[in-house]
Structure formats: structure tokens, C-alpha cells
Design brief:
This protein has one domain. About 75% of the residues lie in helices and about 0% in strands. The longest helix is centred in the middle third of the chain and has 36 residues. The relative contact order is 0.16. The model has no long low-confidence stretch (mean pLDDT about 90).
Amino acid sequence: MTTLQPLLQSKRDQSLDILRGFALAGVLFVYCISDMGAPADYVNSFWDDLIAWPKWVLVENRMYNMLILIFGMGFSVQVNKARLKQESIVPVFLRRLTGLLIIGIIHAIALSSRDILIFYAIAGFALLPARDLNTKGLMIFMSIVFLLLVTKTLDRLFNTQTAHQTLAEPNSFIEHIKYNWWDFKIYHKNLGIYVDMLFHFLLGFYLYRIGFLEKIKTDKKFRKKLLLISFVCFLVLGPPMYLWMEPVGWSYINKLENPFQKFMLRTCASIYWQLWMFCCVLLYIAILISLSPIGKFKNLFRPLAAFGQMALSNYLIQSIILVPYALLFNKFGNTPHAEGFIVFLLVFAFQLWFGIWWLKKFKLGPFEWLLRSFTYFKWQSMKNSS
């Protein structure tokens, strides 16, 4: 029987909670603005475009990558804790992943086709072999996964590039469940998503292992240098991505008849995309960690840290709120960007308040409590002591 126990609240790395909360807010933002969707014949207003462009350039895709990196960092924390106790992390981590997989399957079919927990769980199983690798071995492992990612080798080998979400999401509950089941069967055959997730798990695990996050927090000179470099990369890499690659580049590559040229250009474009995403995430991490110790930002970030501490619960509660709302008021495929932004603000404000209120009374979120109890095969203490 393992003696490993959950991390005490007093020993939590609050910076990870702040980063996790920021990324999860971005996921909610994209869901409300894009995933619910506007009618096909809808013409954006000025306010719609004002919201759509920052979402596209600053938020989309980055926030999932940021969440995945943080999961890898959290895995590193758990591995270190297990080593200190001279125990194997495998049984506990496998139960945690199994719990996530069960919750994810229920969430994906009963509530939302946007579920990411299944990918977390399945890619997480492949993360376990990395725990005992030395730095050289970990770099080789990451390089192999990265090559599989940018060349889309598994998708080509197993022919999993299936059209996803070719059907409009319905606004009736029964049809919604049928849609989720259809989507579940199609979406989770996309092996590229698992490879992408595993690479970012490994990258987060590596960055935390080498003390990257701690160095940002403690080394002011390094922090300034990281801010400058990531900001310059953001300015240099961004315009070609959104002014040429997105509107023109991919179309040009797809029309090429030479298979080798098409393969090489697609691979180079994928590498460019991954580099751009990583620079953005680094910039956000550097900004948030730079601001978090400053007096006036401490109070501002406290609700965000609580939001991130309850990330699993908040992710699921978003679906519990938004899916019935969309079904009841016919909002799937009928939500312009400006309206979606208002929905985002209302749900996010509620969850910030709810997180602070809940954690005054309880040690952890409701779904964190459920997952942790399953992980350790023991009902966890829930209430805060007086």
C-alpha cells in the first residue's frame, strides 16, 4: 500500500495555479466566442471583429498548450515527491489517469464534445516512461515525439485524418447526445492530438525538472531576458503566420503536386507553428510570474489562483452551465462573437467568485475531491478546519 499522499495546500506552487487559471480562462473564452459558433450566413459587426482578432492572434490554441505544459510540470512535482519518499509513482498516477479517463468519457458523451480529459489521460500513460530518464534520454524521447508531431507520421501511417465536426452541433438534448457520440467516435481517432499532447507533457516535465519555472521566479535578470526574447519572437513570428501562412500559405502547400515538396513544406510550416505557439506561451508565463509578486497584483491574482487550483472542477462546471444554456436558448451555431464575449464574462466572473467562496469552506474543488479520493483509494478530507 502506498504512503504517498496529496500535496498539502500550504506546499502548493501558487504560480502554477495562476498559470493554470489564466490558461483555463482562455479555454473558456475560445469556447464562448468560437466553439458555440455564429450562423453560417452571419456577417460580423465591428464589435464581433474587435473580439475575434485578439482571440485568433493572442488566445486560440495557446491556452490548451499552456494547460498541457502545466500538466507536465505537475507530473514533475509528483515524481519528485515520490522520489523523496522512495516510492513508485506508477500506481497512484495510473489511478489518477484512469479517473480522468472515466470522467472524460462521461463528460464527452453526456455534456461536451470539446472534452480534453480523455486526451490528457491516454497521452499521460505514455508520459510515465519519461520519469526515470536522464536529461539526454529525455531529450531524445522528446525529439522523437516532436518529429512524429510535425511530420504527422502516425496520422499518415494509420490514416486518421478524419473530417471532424462536419455536422452542425444540434440544439436539442437527444440530438446533442447523438452528436456527442458521433463526434466521440471520430475525434478520438485523431492520433496527432495525442502526439501533440505527449510532446507538451514532456516539454513541461523537462522545463520543471531543470528549474526553469523557479529561475523565472527568482532570477530577475533571467526573467527580463526571457520577457525580451519571447516578446521579440512574438513580434517577428506573428505577422508572417497570420498575414501569409494562414490565409495563403497552407492553400499554396496543399495545391503542390510534388509529394516530397508538399511533405517538406508542411513539416517546416508545422515546426514554425509550434515555435510560434511556444514563444507565445513563454511570453504569457513570463508576464504572469513577473507580475504576481507585485503588491497590487497579488490581490488581483488571488481569485485567478483559486480558479486554477480548482481547474478540473471549473472546466467541468463550464460545461454544466454552458451546454444546458446553449440547448435551452438555441445558441449552438447561433452565437455571434460579441454575444459570446458577454457570456464568457458572466461565466468567468461567477467562477472567480465561486472559487474564492468554495475554498474558504473546503480544501479542494468537488471534482478534485472525487478524483483524489479515487486516486488514493481513500475518501479525502474535504472541509477546511476552523
